[in-house]
Design a protein that fits this description.
Elements: H1 3-14, H2 16-27, H3 35-39, E1 41-42, H4 43-47, H5 53-56, H6 64-81, H7 87-108, E2 113-114, H8 118-131, H9 137-157, H10 161-167, H11 173-196
Antiparallel strand pairs: 1-2
Helix pairs in contact: 2-6, 6-8, 7-8, 7-11, 8-9, 8-11, 9-11
């Protein structure tokens, strides 16, 4: 195996794009005082044409607990679905899910701004579970039921006050629904497209 092939195999096996996503979160983490103003998913700034915020907003976090929970979720995602999250799939998945979450946020949310990876993370779990259905149907179905159940629970009961106290800001639970829905649709589209080939 030549050097280029082994590097490609390592990147595919280790899910480099998931780690790049974690690095982006760390770069725009709670210690970066300018990140909120420059990169958050802010309604008025998006309306003014600052469209990069669709993709940077999920990387901004306001507390150590906030970023810690989302990075733990990324590690779990990688461990469960690393085979499905090849670089191109996870990069496109992040881009499309983040855009759809942002558009739904603009259309339906009551918040002026949102930050954090959790909405996109819900979508990445849904997308990856759809992609892994053939490999491990039980795991995939379980993840879809747990994450989908959490989203429904948040919609009915409201977000967890324990989590809100821990991260130090309100949880925008509706964005979790947008992310989960976007990931579910995207995952289904990818699976159906692959089946037609």
């Amino acid at each position: 195996m030549n050097r280029k092939t082994s590097l490609t195999a390592l990147i595919n096996r280790q899910g480099l794009s998931v780690y790049l996503l974690a690095a982006g979160c760390l770069l725009l983490g709670p210690w970066n005082v300018d990140a909120l103003q420059m990169f958050s998913l802010d309604r008025s700034d998006l309306a003014a044409g600052e469209f990069w915020r669709f993709w940077t907003g999920p990387l901004v976090h306001l507390s150590w607990a906030h970023i810690g929970l989302n990075l733990a979720g990324l590690v779990l995602l990688q461990q469960m679905f690393g085979q499905e999250l090849r670089p191109a799939i996870s990069a496109w998945g992040y881009g499309i899910i983040a855009l759809l979450v942002g558009l739904c946020f603009m259309a339906f949310s009551r918040f002026g701004y949102v930050v954090g990876l959790s909405a996109v993370l819900h979508g990445l779990f849904a997308m990856a579970a759809c992609l892994a259905m053939r490999r491990d149907g039980l795991l995939s179905a379980g993840v879809l039921l747990v994450v989908g159940g959490k989203v429904v629970w948040e919609k009915i009961q409201g977000p967890s006050t324990l989590v809100e106290d821990l991260i130090g800001l309100p949880v925008a639970a509706d964005t979790h629904l947008y992310g989960f829905g976007a990931g579910l649709v995207l995952g289904a589209v990818i699976v159906l497209s692959a089946a037609r080939r």
